Amino acid sequence: MKMKMKTTVLALVLASASFSAFSAQEVARDKTRYLQPQERISVSGMSTAKEVTDYFHNKAQASGVDHYAITRVSVLGKGSLWSGNAVLFKNQ
Known about the structure:
Elements: H1 2-21, E1 25-26, E2 35-46, H2 49-63, E3 67-75, E4 82-91
Parallel strand pairs: 1-3
Antiparallel strand pairs: 2-4, 3-4
């Protein structure tokens, strides 16, 4: 029973390690020269800048791309709602 538990725990650790290895990575805009743009995405009406950046990361993960570059994060007008833009990329 102990051996089965150790094997299960080890399998879960390895599975999560390999999953994170395939996650989309944020990249600076000046490093996108050799990447293929796939899609431009936007979001608005978020409460914080972190919500905006988290949205882009999650969207990139779900889209299966290799990288994403955030091109804008700002507050709309004099309000308190945040918006942003990003580009999703695949390796060439």
